Structures
1.
Amino acid sequence: MSAEAAAKVQQLWEKLVIRRVSRTIAREPEDVIRMELKAVNPDDPTRLHYSGGSERVITSMRSSDVPKEDRWRLSTYWRHFYGFTTDGVYFALGRHEVIDHGLGLHAELEHDDGRADRRGIYDYRPLEGELIAGELSEGQKGPLFNRWFRCTRQFLFLVNLIRIGQPMPKQELAQKLYRPTAGWGDTYWVFANLVLNDDISPFIEVLMSEDQRPSHAAAGMKDFFGLVVTNQAIHLPFDAFQWLHEMSLWLEQPEWWKKFLEETSRLGLVHFHPVWGGVCEACEFEMMKNLDFPDYESGWFDYQFPYSESRANFLERNSNYRPV
């Protein structure tokens, strides 16, 4: 089964290329929309304030007017920039966009710029030596990125690993793919572990109590907040169970979800998804196959409950509810 999943991702990523940036050209102040200095965390002057607020706006829109020691917290909104990779491929701001490669935007496989010292800073301009990924086309003056996004060395390793299709122990995957610069540091290795190993154990472990949960696959490494990883549950872009269910749908691997339900039932572990207010596309798909359509107006989704409840009972309990 893992070979089938890997083949599916390989097909989705067939046109994906990754290149290293040689230089980026952006003019100040002509190409700047707004420039502001982010506030510092009073408890840790090496980090930004948790609110994400700004200390002041740089009205000249020139970085040279900001002291060098403060430029690490400079947030710049660009109207335009362009650049070239080390092999001469052109890229520009207008062509940057999120590319989900058929995995759905919620997979969040490319949302990380890898700059540990720039968390909360807005500046999508790739710096020299950084990586960008995307799809190429041929322009009048040579190859160019038709669309692209900034990525990390972990993403490069993930793509190469999936293309090879060789299973690898989850601890080794975590050591190579855990991302301490991202708020959702587990996404890459959990994805690789699922696709290459058909391993759903990290999702089962989310439901275990702390004293029963085994050590995290990346134990000993430091997380986004600088804390040492021990045996905490995996941290994904959103609800872990919804992530697994939707990935089972997108990659056409229903056995993953079936195995998860069987194992949680065997262990007596109860889960429900998505979290209140969310919508699981895989659950919707299953409901629609049975001609049972979600009731968006009343907010009734039978899969949101860890117990069985009929639509009639739900509507009776919420008879005073009126959508705003």
2.
Amino acid sequence: MISGIMISLMQIMTVWGLSFFNVKWYNEFSFVFAVEDYWQVFVYHFNNAIEASVPERRRPTVKRNNNKKSYRKSIKQMLSRKSFCRKRRRYIREPSHYLAYKTYSVKCTRTTKAIQAHYQ
């Protein structure tokens, strides 16, 4: 009865494509006399077949910037305005836009340096 069940399980696994790498089942089960031992041998080969045939999922490595500065809301708004002035100066080449960008850039630099000096 047990050997009939094992043979039918082997046939099912062969249909699924898991032939257990041509394990000599007769030799494996010839010295086994208890049902639990049959099961242990079967599970051992089954797990080995799955480990060998199922690919591992590898996550892509993500580079994280741990040196990123975090500022409070008012500083972020200043940096955003500086970025806006820079973009406007880049697209509309007028001296007034360049002057506005330069003055705001200096203001942002001074403020961020003052905050960094305060926290160090």
3.
Amino acid sequence: MKFAKILFAVTIIFYIAYDWYFGWNEKPINDAEKTCDEISGWMFLASIIFYVQPIFKYLESRVAFQEANEKTEEENKESETIENNE
């Protein structure tokens, strides 16, 4: 998460710096500006992916925890029915 925050901050600084250098144009005026646009776009995407990734890991662990609980509940019910039948 810390890496994602640092990457996002670096991306913002890079974006502002190259836009300040080339000017705030709607469309790129040369290949260098187009390359900087692509680099900043990929950096934004990477920072978002790294920022959201821990959320998916947390959700995956919660699902695994719930599945384990459901499995133990089913095993407990089966053992109770076996004990009741004896």
4.
Amino acid sequence: MASISDKDMFLTSEETKLLEESYQHEQEGKLISNKELRKELVFYPDSIMTTEEKRIFEQGVGELKIGKTTPLSKLKEELGI
């Protein structure tokens, strides 16, 4: 009976190629940290944003972190929902 720990049987050919490249880069010391990579990205892979949209998004995240938010009930009231 085959072992399920053999993850290669679940990878597509593209995923296998990327995994091999990753192993090669690891051996060559060419890895980039996740934090450094995110600094280089203008958008996250799962959502494409323009530079202006990114600025607005980051402003909103900053406001959220400092507690500058509007309660949902107040927002609904202002929108007449």
